[in-house]
Design brief:
Chain lengths: 78, 140
């Protein structure tokens, strides 16, 4: 059983997904990552990191209801 | 200051280019700190690069705004901790469309004496590049 989380797409990930946000059901970020790549194969070419509730993840993490996951391609500010 | 407050999306992000007028307003911040003997400023501008035979006319910036504020707070804190003579650190980044030749990033660091102002300004710039969740899309 997974839990419902909000996924936010940024930069090239937004282009690959064709949307800014979407709800997914997954029990952890590894499962979410698999779903994302299955649904949006173009994301396989983007070296993205994930942020869980605005904190960048250094390893896979369990997910809780109402968590917000952001898909973060390499930053390009400046 | 009224002009700036109207267009700032948060303390660090501003809609559109960082105009000469905004820069002049930002430069007045900290004028009341009579202990700051040095001010170092970096201004980043949009280049009209050629990409695959097409000339960039503008860049459209986007950000994870909720996270950008926190990351910028952390950058300011880190720089202030690393450079004991630094008295203020200001970061402003553009969102939305910025034309080639216009400014999209403004960093200003004040310190008591000159050495740490310039080094801390450079350090802030590198941290902005590494940590601020901002993305760009070239427009032609």
């Amino acid at each position: 059983m997974g839990t419902e989380v909000m996924v936010l797409f940024f930069g090239k990930a937004e282009v690959a997904a064709g949307r800014r946000e979407e709800t997914f059901t997954a029990e952890d970020t590894a499962a979410l990552r698999r779903q994302l790549l299955d649904k949006y194969p173009a994301m396989a070419g983007i070296p993205f990191r994930m942020a869980l509730n605005k904190t960048i993840l250094k390893e896979e993490s369990a997910l809780n209801k109402n968590d917000i996951i952001a898909i973060l391609p390499p930053f390009q500010g400046g | 200051m009224n002009h700036k407050c109207l267009i700032m999306k948060n303390r660090y992000l501003v809609g559109g280019p960082i105009t000469p007028l905004l820069i002049s307003e930002l430069m007045t911040l900290g004028n009341d700190d009579s202990g700051a003997g040095a001010v170092s400023i970096f201004i980043g501008k949009v280049r009209a690069d050629e990409i695959e035979g097409r000339r960039v006319s503008a860049i459209e910036y986007s950000a994870y705004e909720d996270m950008a504020g926190r990351e910028a707070d952390d950058i300011v804190k880190t720089v202030r901790n690393a450079f004991s003579d630094v008295r203020s650190v200001l970061i402003v980044h553009s969102m939305g469309v910025v034309k080639a030749g216009e400014a999209s990033l403004f960093i200003m660091v004040t310190s008591g004496r000159r050495d740490q102002a310039s080094r801390a300004c450079r350090h802030t710039l590198e941290m902005v590049k590494e940590k601020l969740p901002v993305w760009k899309k070239e427009l032609f």
